[in-house]
Amino acid sequence: MGFVRKDDKNGRGWTTRARAAPEPHGRPPHRQPHRHNPHRKGPRRRARTSGVVLGLALAGIVSGACAQPPEDGWPPAPGVRDDRASASVTDSPASVTDHPASAPGSSAPASDAPASGPGRSALSGGDAEPPARGDGVAPLAGTALALAESAERIRKEAAAPGKGTAGGRGTPKGRGTRAAPGDPEDPADRERRRAAAEKWGLAEPPLLPPPPPRTKPELHTPPGFRRGSDMTGLPHVIARVPTDDPVVFLTIDDGDHKDPRLLRMLDELDVPVSAFLSHYLIRDGYDYFRTLRAQGSRVQNHTLDHPYLTSLSYAGQREQICGQQRHLEREIGERPRLLRPPYGAYDRDTLRAATACGIDVVPLWAAEAFPGRMEFRDGKRLRPGDIVLTHFRGPRDWDGTMPDVVRRVLRTATGQGLAVALLEDYV
Question: How many domains does the chain contain in total?
């Protein structure tokens, strides 16, 4: 007796039945056919017939592929490129149907991938079948070879570096920037951005930043940010970047609230951000930030556990900073150069520990953004080079969503003639 899986009408349950002992060599038992009926085929005869048919089919395919030379250049010889067999992988942005103000947690819609038309192959991107090459099974061999080559190309393209993909560790994609100040924007791209702005509740698209500077601005720690008279060898502490370019920099701290609409909004509007992350808030959500980085944003250090660093010893501060460096390098694929100390609290030991962990710059902030307002360190407006702070938070923390915060920043910056640029391009 033995236990045998047997689904009942509800798809559940185990049952028992007598299990016959196997025949020698593991062959399962079976009934022999009635020998008085010559037209009835038993299992052995059926298996033998199937093997003969399969063998003939395989022989035909091999002989057709080997004996008949390709006609009209199809399929292409190994190493020869043929557009009819070319394959392409298109990372088309997902079609977002929910309104930015919709409730958090709404399901992400499917992507708007173009449907394959008549005579098109969804796998190869080319003809569904190669041109006819005569009778027999030779066309089948050509099709099999073409599909195999297409699959191999897709595999190589997917594995190639620089293919930033959702959830992967690819190189960040390029952002929409002008080739030179004053150059006209591509009409198709301008229309795309106009439609995205309307979708996300903006009266006009965000301004495009100029190209990144060939030489990054020389940084200096302002007197109020210095810790000791000699700052030689320590990271620069700044709240704004010394530049005349009409740009500001959006930075987002912590990593607690992971709104998928924020990723779509930033991607569709071509807005880069710098995310300063604490490990205890994102330990189970690194995929979200790998996607953010693949879209063109960057990820930086905000310590392991978000403590007041000044309350810790030098060794404790070093572990908080270096420990998060190790996590981000392992999970994101890049060792950060920037550290934002939690609460903006730091002392000389913080800067010494940051230096030991490979940190070059400690960016604080000149303005802070909320869903309904902005607060400024000096004055009542943004200035070129200002670093803007906000947090990964949602309705449970404040009266609004992450898209509401980004919308507030973009309206303010655009109204003052400023674009949002990537901080890492300047520091």
Answer: 1
The rounded distance, in Å, linking the Cα atoms of 194 and 206 is: 9
Q: How far apart are CA 172 and CA 165, in angstroms?
A: 9
CATH code of the domain covering residue 358: 3.20.20.370
**Span 202-222, pLDDT tens digits:** 999 999 999 999 999 999 999
Q: How far apart are CA 78 and CA 166, in angstroms?
A: 32
Give the residue-averaged pLDDT of 295-317. 98
The amino acid at residue 210 is P
Element (H, E) at 152: helix 138-159
| C-alpha distance from residue 143 to each of 29, 81, 158, 162 (Å) | 41, 16, 22, 31
Q: In terms of C-beta density within 10 A (0-12 exposed, 13-18 middle, 19 or more buried), how is residue 335 classed?
A: middle
Q: In this structure, what token pair is assigned to residue 190?
A: 């301008």
pLDDT of residue 340: 98
- What contacts 363, CB < 8 A, 6 or more positions away? 238, 239, 251, 274, 338, 340, 387, 423, 427
Q: Which domain holds residue 282?
A: 210-425
DSSP track, 7-64:
--TTS--EEEE--PPPPGGGPPP-PPPPTT-TT---HHHHHHHHHHHHHHHHHHHHHH
Alpha carbon separation from 220 to 231, 362, 372, 383 (Å, rounded): 10, 11, 33, 17
Give, in degrees to the nearest 5, the angle at Cα 299 between 297 and 304. Answer: 160
Q: Report if residue 266 sits inside a domain.
A: yes
Q: Which ranges of 81-137 does DSSP label H, i.e. alpha helix? A: none
Nearest by Cα to 369 from 350, 351, 345, 386 = 386
Closest CA to 217 of 244, 196, 191: 244
- Whether 230 is covered by a domain: the verdict is yes
Distance from C-alpha of 411 to C-alpha of 413, rounded to nearest angstrom = 6
CA-based torsion, 183, 424, 257, 406: positive or negative = negative
